[in-house]
Amino acid sequence: MVDAYLKLLGGRKKYADVSGPAGEAVDCPYGILPDHTAVMEMAGCAGLPLMRGQLDPLHATTRGVGEMLLRLSAAGHHKVLMGIGGSATNDCGLGMAAALGYRFLDGAGREIPPYACHLGRVRHIRRPETLPELEITAACDVDNPLCGERGASAVFGPQKGLKPEQIAPMDQAIRSFASVISSELGKDILNVPGAGAAGGLGGALLAFCGAELLPGIEILLDAAQIDRLMEDAELIITGEGRIDRQSVSGKVPVGVGRRALKAGRPCIAICGCAGEGAEAVLKEGISAYYTSSDREQSMEELARTCRSSLRKTAEEAIKAFLTRSV
Prior knowledge:
By secondary structure, this protein is of the alpha/beta class. It has 11 helices and 11 strands.
């Protein structure tokens, strides 16, 4: 997202030394746009790849996100565009809020460490004396609520390492935390579309930072003036790592497909793989989708083969389009 906005609008790419998801120091990339808006990705300091396969959803933290916000505010960048997705975390923004100065207490008034495994113990929230003055727009690529069968834990938890038997207890802990947020801060985030993004960070940004949640793909497509570009296009090409039923909940290919449908242009998706429910995208402006892998592969294997397999898949897709067989 940082690179996309810098390419579209210009600006400078920078790095900040903040906490990673396992508490280690990471260089988080961010951009400063010509109007001094800062653009960042939560995945830059709390993303799944930073765990290097050592998944720990009960302790992975969003603390670095809060540290980034403090850095940006101190540098005079009070307008922030943040991409939320690709997270290693399921802490409902607890780490971020702690970095901003919020304190979380149990029923006896004891302070609780800001990790996902303690979410269900929170009974009281203490606001910091001061908060950075920030106007945050959270660009979200899903519309999942915080809890339930489409919530953060049930849908995204397994890819972060949540075991099947941990999903229901984690979902209940987040539900309890949301109830405390409602009673202590007066913010009802439980059923807000997108609140479940990035392990509940969407809801946390609403509750602790007064952020605005907007569909990330729509913001980016508008910035790219995609509707104007489509006027002269014969074919629209989009893609996703894994195209499946989640794709219709605000993901990039469907966002592009809907614009292509509106413009009356054919649109194909070139993807890494397809999962259950992928065919749903064919009702959303995607004429056809092509995958470069028909089986699960390790990250190491993908790193070796993805370029050649995607090139081959792209060639097949374009040949199909040229013969109008899509």
